UniProtKB/TrEMBL annotation:
The lineage of its organism: Bacteria, Pseudomonadati, Pseudomonadota, Betaproteobacteria, Burkholderiales. This is Transcriptional regulator. It comes from Roseateles chitinivorans. GO terms for molecular function: DNA binding. Residues 23-75 form the HTH cro/C1-type domain. Coiled coil: none annotated.
């Protein structure tokens, strides 16, 4: 009986590479043919890579991950699984090479004053905050010096009973929207998944957890009355560092004149 020889360069069919590539391709709604045309290889060769019958070169794997617009942590994960060194560094924001980045972030925060703005990492942990964020916490009766410190997690503060959640007038709506957003982001930032499991019991069951709203107004009870805010995000375009890829600036905007006046006063 004839047998089919498996190339010595093959990788296990259960390798993260053989799982990750098809998963990313399906997420991007690409067929094998479409992806192969983007990268310039045959569909048959791509099929062999996805099933583990052929091991892609480092250059080929990077090209596939680029074509799939894979998040940088997942690109490094795929490279490591295939036996290659990571391609994208993960430096601390305190690294001297990232001084220009820190200055750019500080400029964005300062330019948004007196409205609140926060820099968050992929796990929703606070990295930086502006004066407007401190002003908001003061209006909410929260000690900003204690709250807005390293280790503060915005998702935990908004979903756990008590804390900021207790000050929210439209609590269920906000919790559902944040939960939906965080679940979507967890596909790109694996470090977010343990936090979601921790917070899952606190998500309101009476609200659909896949709720979507075009513009979410968060209404918070404060010493100046009810504050109404909506938010928008700024992120780095085409970052080549894992840390930078995870960072975003969340800008909060007053949704009415009363909120604008309260934030500007002081």
């Amino acid at each position: 009986m004839n047998t089919i020889a498996v190339p010595t360069s093959a990788i296990p069919a259960t390798s993260p590479v053989t799982v990750l590539l098809p998963q990313l391709r399906r997420e991007r709604r690409l067929s094998q043919l479409e992806l192969s045309l983007r990268v310039g290889v045959s569909q048959r060769h791509l099929s062999c890579i996805e099933t583990g019958r052929a091991r892609p070169s480092r250059e080929m794997l990077i090209a596939l991950l680029d074509a799939l617009d894979a998040p940088l942590p997942r690109r490094n994960e795929a490279l490591l699984a295939a036996g290659y060194a990571p391609h994208y560094p993960r430096r601390s924001l305190d690294d001297p090479d990232l001084d220009a980045v820190r200055q750019a972030l500080r400029h964005l925060l300062d330019a948004h004053d007196p409205a609140p703005a926060l820099v968050l990492d992929g796990g929703w942990n606070l990295v930086m905050a502006n004066r407007g964020a401190h002003r908001l916490m003061t209006l909410l009766g929260v000690d900003a010096g204690t709250m807005l410190q390293p280790g503060f997690n915005l998702l935990r503060a908004c979903l756990q009973p008590g804390g900021l959640r207790a000050l929210c007038e439209n609590e269920d709506e906000v919790c559902a929207a944040l939960w939906s957003r965080a679940n979507h982001e967890a596909a790109h930032f694996a470090e977010l998944k343990p936090l979601l499991e921790e917070l899952r019991p606190h998500v309101p069951q009476r609200v659909a957890t896949d709720a979507h709203t075009p513009l979410l107004h968060t209404r918070l009870r404060s010493s100046a009355g009810v504050l109404s805010l909506f938010s928008a995000f700024t992120s780095f375009g085409s970052p080549l560092d894992v840390t930078l890829a995870s960072l975003r600036v969340e800008h909060f905007f007053p949704a009415d004149a009363a909120t604008r006046i309260a934030l500007a006063d002081g």
